[in-house]
């Protein structure tokens, strides 16, 4: 019975606490893995640090039979055959547990790592006696290979050898390449007695320090390339803060060895190990926390308009022909000339035709009787899905990524049916039947920002979420043969359009800068309750859009921003919904903005008119696509206005 018990010296030679020094690369891999399978990650950590590393240490001690200090033990005891059998058992247990509780790729990597470790120490192969071969073996297997193996264990997948991942693998190997010779600097005499000529011995005491400094410099270069390639260069600078104590002690120790070679001893080496491992483990734990804080990013914005494009003049002439009242004709011309619109798009082909060729309206100059609600909804159902798909399919590689979409949010206020636009899109695009869907209906021009608010909340609560937001409006099918002020504005402002937005919980690198969604703010102006409204009737949707809306927005927008602590000067880029030219003019005046900041808004108004909910995202697309390298860190302010009267704002930033 006593022979079966493992003695204390055998346990001591496993040097289990030494695994703390080897922990940073696992934590780094955990912080960077795209997907985390938490139970596999836990098993991977335990297998590597409590079985594989200690078994490697034990086998090395059994073969070397060190009499002097070794890493983690200043006075190691003599090993027995029990240590050898224990290391074999631990390696076998590690491989079996990896196959059962992790995955085959991780288990295969473990076998390769164990094989390399044995080849390094074994008397038959003894790679450690060759200064270059031993160095390269350790740098590769404890560096790049360990990172790859850790990612396989944590995520269940191999690491794709993309440009940025090659950078990080090189960075990991150079990190180990710097640390490895430094751990040998006090063992020169002991190694020589055992017939081993280490790289550190070849370099000499001072050469070892200079070589280590060079390796860590190269490590930093590749980490910089990695994080900047991923568009998160700020993380590199966070790492540098944690590296400061390491650099300071390294410089101090180098100075001591420069003056007295005896300072290249076990105590100082272990002190260096502890400082480096504490700082790097702390650093990568912080990266885990940072990378696991859910965020949301706009990965793509794509737009679409119908095939029928009309000049504002052609649309106003259609309107004019519908009445014989000269006063109404004159009012239409005056209002049309003040809209700031040059062209609009429609799913209807009638607006530049003679009455005999009308397809939607009654084939008479006075348009009577007007299409009823059923007819208008029939046109909506015929065209809304097609126009939405036209926008969606512009998203880069959409058909390759569509099965990763976890949520679908549709937005519309110009047509309603059940099953609605969301189900139609799922069916036509063959989206996952398990996709989570929701619809934002009848909320008007600012509904897109409300939809993005929902997408943002989803991404910040589900780390792997990918949300497709689709806003589609066919405003022109609600043209009404009326001539009061409300309809003069609505008939001469609105056009048709669709926009598809992909919101991700992780950066996509589709733009020159990542576009991170920050915060949202809302305000209802009850004194504008009846100035913007949208109601159903037997003949179609009835629009209330009074000329008082710009005044209400002008008087309210600055107090709204002040109430939530936002300063206009903090924003370099503006995506404001072009509800009408006066609204945009008064918005700029209220915030004392140079109108050049609102150029994207004026351009969308000029070329598309007001398309209701998609319009602000047409503007945001223009803003994002014109970003420049020097815009990193700049903030974007988006605002839209809807029934109620409601104001919705969104703040974003280039990161």
Characteristic key phrases:
single chain; 655 residues; alpha+beta; Peroxisomal Thiolase, Chain A, domain 1; 2 domains; nine-stranded mixed sheet; two-stranded antiparallel sheet; 22 helices; 13 strands; 14% strand; transmembrane helix; Naringenin-chalcone synthase/4-hydroxybenzoate polyprenyltransferase
CATH superfamily of the largest domain: Thiolase/Chalcone synthase
Tell the overall outline: elongated
The N- to C-terminal Cα distance equals 64 Å
The overall number of domains is 2
Number of continuous helical runs: 22
Beta strand count: 13
Taking strands numbered 1, 2, ... along the chain, how are they ordered across the largest sheet?
5-4-6-7-1-8-13-12-11
| Helix share bin | 40-55%
Major sheet summary line: 9 strands, mixed
Radius of gyration from CA coordinates: 34 Å
Query: Structural class of the helix and strand makeup?
Result: alpha+beta
Strand content: 5-15%
CATH structural architecture of the largest domain: 3-Layer(aba) Sandwich
Tell me what the structure shows:
This protein has two domains: 2-292, Orthogonal Bundle (Farnesyl Diphosphate Synthase); 297-654, Thiolase/Chalcone synthase (Peroxisomal Thiolase, Chain A, domain 1), CATH 3.40.47. It is 53% helix and 14% strand. It contains 22 helices and 13 strands. The protein has helices spanning 8-14, 24-32, 38-64, 81-101, 104-121, 131-155, 163-183, 188-193, 199-229, 233-259, 266-292, 312-321, 326-338, 373-392, 398-401, 421-429, 447-461, 485-493, 549-563, 581-590, 599-608, 615-625; strands at residues 297-304, 308-311, 343-346, 407-412, 436-441, 466-474, 496-504, 515-524, 532-537, 540-545, 573-576, 635-642, 646-654. The strands form three sheets. A nine-stranded mixed sheet has the order 5-4-6-7-1-8-13-12-11, with helices on both faces. The longest helix has 31 residues, at 199-229. The protein is elongated and about 110 Å long. The model has no long low-confidence stretch (mean pLDDT 90).
